[in-house]
Amino acid sequence: MTSRGAGTAFSRKNYRLSTEPEKSKVTGIVNSRLLNDYLHRIFTNADGNQPAAAYRKHLTFQNLQEHLDRLLAEENGSEDGQDQVVEGRLGPSVVVLDHTSGFEGLLLVDDDLLGVIGHSNFGSIRATTCVYKGKWIYEVLISSQGLMQIGWCTLNCRFNQEEGVGDTPDSYAYDGNRVRKWNVTTTNYGKSWAAGDIVSCLIDLDEGTIAFCLNGISLGTAFDNITRGAGMAYFPAISLSFKESVAFNFGSRPLRYPLVEGYHPLQDPPVADLVKARKLLGYLKNVIHIGIDVTEGKLVEKDTSMWQLQGEPTVLITLAHIFNYFSPLMCKVYLVEDVLMTFLLSILERGGAVEAHPLIQQLLDLMWLLMEEYEVHECLKQLLMSLLRAYRFSPIIPDLGLQIHYLRLTIAVLKHEKSRKYLLSNVLFDVLRSVVFFYIKSPLRVEEAGLQELIPTTWWPNRFTKEGKESKEVKEESAEERLRRRAYERGCQRLKKRIEVVEGLQVQILKLLLNNKDRGGGEASRYIFLNKFRKFLQENASNRGNLTVLCPPEYMVCFLHRLIATLRFFWDGHKAKTPAALSSEEAYVPPQLFYNGKVDYFDLQRLGGLLSHLKKTLKDDLAAKANVLIDPAELQAVTMDDLDEDEESATSAAQSQRPSATLAIGGALARPGWLSSPTLGRANRFLSTAAVSLMNPRRPLGTLEKIKVRTLSVEQRTEEDIEGSHGNEGLLLGRPPEEPDQPITENSLLEVLDGIVMMYNLSVHQQLGKMVGVSDDVNEYAMALKDTEEKISRCPKRRRDIHEELLKSQKVFSEKLNHLSRRLAWINVTIYSKEKMQDIYWLLRVCIRTIEHGDRTGSLFAFMPEFYLSVAMNSYSALKNYFSPVNSMEELPGYEETLMRLAAILAKHFADSRIVGTDIRDSLMQALASYVCYPHSLRAVERIPEEQRISMMKNLLAPYEQRPWAQTNWILVRLWRGCGFGYRYTRLPHLLKTKPEDASLPSLQKPCPSTLLQRHMADLLRSDRDLAPSFLNSVLNQLNWAFSEFIGMIQEIQQAAERLERNFVDSRQLKVCATCFDLSVSLLRVLEMTVTLAPEIFLDWNRPSSELLLRRLAQVSSFSRVRVTAERNLFDRVVNLRLPGLESVDHYPILVAVTGILVRLLVDTDVQG
C-alpha cells in the first residue's frame, strides 16, 4: 500500500519485525508474541469472541491479509444473492429517472438522474423501475414548496402539459401544496409541505393501498382498492410546474425514514459491502481503543477521544491492512453516509467544543496517508454532500439539535487543512451548493417545529384601526395584555438564543474558509475562497432571468449576515495588529478597485455606462490621475464579433471540462444548479468573458510607473495579485491623488466587502421586502379578530345563530393568529432582529463612504458600478420600512449623521452628468422624492451644506424638456405642500369617507413643507434672469399638454359611457386620465409656489419676460377654470359617473390650485401698486 498525502513517512525497513525485546523498547517495533496478541484483539471474529490462545492461529503481518480475507468472508453469504432480481420488481437494479422515454414536457434532470426541476407548465417524469407485487417505498426530498403531484403511475398513463400524475386513471398522487390527493378526482388529504421536507411514498400491492408520510409521520392511507392484476405495474412518478424542484431517493442512499415495517426501497442496499464496511470500521475502532505498551510488553486500553498515531510502525501497518479494504468502500455514497458519517457523528455526540475531539483530525490524516488520492477525494466529496443533504432536510425541532449536529461535523472536517483546501478548490462551490450550510429554514408548520412549547403564549400588537392605519390614540396596555406580551417576548428570547447557536456555528465555517494563515502545502484558504466566491457572484449576476441557476434569495439573506459577521471579525483582528489601519466601523471600498481591473465586475453596468466605452473615453484621465494605461489589445476587443468569439470559446472550454447534464428532451444541455441533490450545474455561458474584464498583470511598480492593464481571469489570480508585495499594491493598484495614503485593511477583505454589497443588490433586498408579508398578515387577522369581537359584543341575545357563527369566526382568527405570531417570532429572530438590522445599517454606511470616496476622484467616479448607489438607497429603504416596528432606525448609532450624508449623495448625484444610466438616474430621483416626504429625512436634506442645497434646487429648476420631469415636479410640490391655498390636507376632502390606501405611501404623508428650500428656490429665480423664464415656460408647456390630454380623454370616456352597446371604459385609459389630471394639479401648484415665493417674476415690468409669463399664466388659469366650472359641462358629467380609477378627479383639487394662483397675483399686485 503506497502512502500518499501528509503524515509520517515510513520506509520499508520499518516494516521488518523483531523478536528482540530490548530493540522494541528503542524502535517501537513489537516482538512476535505481543504482535500476535495485538492482532487477535484488533481482528476479532464476527461474534466478538476470541478463541483460546491454544486454538488460535499465530498472526503476523505476513499472514494478516489471509486472516482478514477470511474474517470478511464470514456471514457474507448474501453477497451471492445481491444481484438477483427481487420478486415483485421489474427494471434495472439501479433505479433512476427515465430521461429517455418516460417523461412529458420540458424537464431539467441532474447528472445522477435523481434530481429534477420543472421547466415547462406541468412536466411529468417516471422512474426506470416498476413494481407489481409486495410492499415498496421511496423518498422525495422537497426543494421548493410549489405545485407538484408525487406518487405512482402505470405505463399506460398518458400525460400532457395540463394533466399529470393523479389526473389520469391508474395514477395516484399527493399534492402538499394544495393539501390534496389526486386520482382523476381530488379530495383533501395530508398536510402542507415546505422546502426541506421529505415525502415517503408507499405502495402495498398485496393489500392494494397507497399511503404517504411527511418527515416520517404517516398521513394515513390515501387510496385503497387500486387496480392490480396481469399487466399492472406501478412506476414512481412526479408532475411539477415551472421551476419547482425535488430529488428522489429510491435506495441509492440510506432512506431518511425507513421505519415502515415490511416495506422495501426500490433499489436494494449494498448489503455485502455494508457488512464488510461495518466490520472494518469495528477493526478501526479497536485500533483506536487498544494500545501497545512496548516498555511493559502488554496491551492497554486507551481513551479514544485523545488517540494519536504518533508514528508507531506496528499500528501504522495494521491500519494500512484495514484501509486496503476500507478505502474502495468509502468511494460509495451509501457506505459513506451509513457507515463513515454515522461514526464521525458519534464521536461528536459526547458534547463539548469541536476542538475537544481531535480524533476526527487524526482520522482525516489517516485517510490522506493510507488512501489513494482519488479515493480520499471521492470520499470527502460524498461526505460533504451527505452532510449538506442531512442539514438541509432535517426537520426543525425546538433546540435545532439536528442542524447543530451536522454543522459541528462539517466544522470538524473543514478544520483539517488539507481536506479544507481540497473541498474549497473542487467541491464546495463547484459540486455542492455550500451556501445551504448558512441557511436556517423557516418552519411552515409551527406545531412540528416545537414552537408551541418554546413560545407557549402568543401576542400581537393592537395598535391598528379598522382601516389598517396606525392608531393615533395611545391606549394603555391592560395588565393581561402586558403579561401576554412579556411572556411572548421571553419565548422569543429563548428562540433567539437557540438560533444564535446555529448562526455561531455557521460563522465558524466561514472563519475556516477565510483563513489566510494556512499556507502549508499551497495557497491559503482565503484566496481559494475569493476566486470561488467571485464566480458564485458572477453566476448570479449574469443569469438574472434564469431562475434555475440563481441562488434562492432566502439563502442569500442568511449567507450575507454570516459573511458580514466573519468579515468584521477578521477586519477588526487586523486592526488590532495594525493600529494605523481602519476599523470595520470605518470600512469602505477604495475607488481604484473599480478601474484598476483587479476585481472583475462581469457585465454589470457602471455609472458612466459600458466599461468598454469608459476605457476609451477616460483613458487619459486614468493615465493622469491613477498612472494606469489601458492595454491597446483591450481596446480592440470591444466589437460584437470579438464578444461572440470570446463567449463561444469560453462556452466550449467549459463544456469540454465538465460532463454535460441531461435535459429530458433527448438533448444534452445545462442541468439546473439549485436542485436538492444538492449539486451545481456547469459554468454559465458568460463565465470568463474577457471583453468586459479589466484584470491586470501583476509585477512590482516604480513610484510613477504607468500600469498597463490587460485581461486576467479569476482563476489565474494568486495571493500576490490580491495582497501585493515588493512595491506591488495588489488590489489597491492605481491609487488616485484624492485617496488618502493610509492602510485600510487586508486587500482580500476589501474584495469580500465588495462581494457583500453585490450580494445585497442581487436578491437580499427583494427577500427582505417579501418576508414583511407575514407581519402584514398578522395585522390583517388582528383587525379581523378585533372587528369580530366587537360584533359579538353588539350581537342581540335573541340571534343565537349569528352569535354562534361569530364565535366560530373568532376561533378561526385566533388559531390563525397563534400560528402566525409564532412564525413571525421565528422570522423576526432570523431576518429582522436588532443584530440583522445593524448589519444592514453597517452596509449602508459602507456604501455611503464608498460613494463619497469615489465622488472625490472626479471623472473616475464613472467607473463605480451602479449597484453601490442602488444598495445605499435600498438598504435605507429596508431599514425604514421592513425592520420597524420591531426595531427603530432612530436608535442606531450615528443615525442623524448617516441620514444627512445619504441626503447629500441624493441631492448631488440625481443630476450628476457622470451618471448616464436612465434607470439609476430615475432611482435617485425617486429616492430623493421619497426623502422629502417624511419630516425626519427632509430635515436631513436641510442640514446638508448650503452650497449643495442651492445646487440641488438649481438642478430641480432646470427646464422640464428632454428629461423625466414628473418626479422633479413632485419634489417641488412636496416642498410646497402645507403652504399653498387649501393645500394642507393629507387626503383629498372628497375621499375622506372612502377606504384609505396604505398609510405608509409617500403621497399620504402629512404635509411637511421646507421654508428653507423654498427660500433657496426664490433666491435662484430672482437672481438668475435666464433661469426663471426657461423654467416657467417649460412648466406652462407641460401644463398645456397635460390638461389638454386630460380633456381629450374625458371626452372619450363620456362618449364610451353614453354608448348603449358598450357601457364600459378601459381601465388603462382611466388610469392615464387620472394621471394627467394629477399632473395638471401638481403643475398648477408649482406655479402657485413660484407666484407666492417670487411674484416679481410675473409683476416686475423691468424684467423682459414678465409680461409674457403673466399672459401665459392668466390664459392657462382661465382655461382650466372655465373647463371645470361651466354648468353641467363635460367635467361635471364624468365626475358624476364615479368611475373606479377616477376617484382623484374632482373639482376641489384643481380649483383651489387655480384660486391660489389668482389670489397671490391679486395680493401681490395690490402690494406693488
TrEMBL record:
One GO-annotated biological process of the protein: proteolysis involved in protein catabolic process
Enzyme class, first EC level, given as a word: transferase
Catalyzed reaction equations: S-ubiquitinyl-[E2 ubiquitin-conjugating enzyme]-L-cysteine + [acceptor protein]-L-lysine = [E2 ubiquitin-conjugating enzyme]-L-cysteine + N(6)-ubiquitinyl-[acceptor protein]-L-lysine
Residue ranges annotated for the B30.2/SPRY domain, each copy included: 73-255
Natural source organism: Phaethon lepturus (White-tailed tropicbird)
Keywords: Metal-binding, Transferase, Ubl conjugation pathway, Zinc, Zinc-finger
UniProt-annotated stretches for the region Disordered: 718-742
SMART domains per the UniProt record, alphabetical: SPRY
Taxon lineage: Eukaryota, Metazoa, Chordata, Craniata, Vertebrata
Entry annotated with the keyword Zinc-finger: yes
GO molecular function: ubiquitin protein ligase activity; zinc ion binding
GO cellular component: cytoplasm
Coiled coil: none
InterPro entries: B30.2/SPRY, B30.2/SPRY_sf, ConA-like_dom_sf, RNF123/RKP/RSPRY1, SPRY_dom, SPRY_RNF123, TPR_RNF123/RKP
EC number annotated for this UniProt entry: 2.3.2.27
Protein's name in the database: RING-type E3 ubiquitin transferase
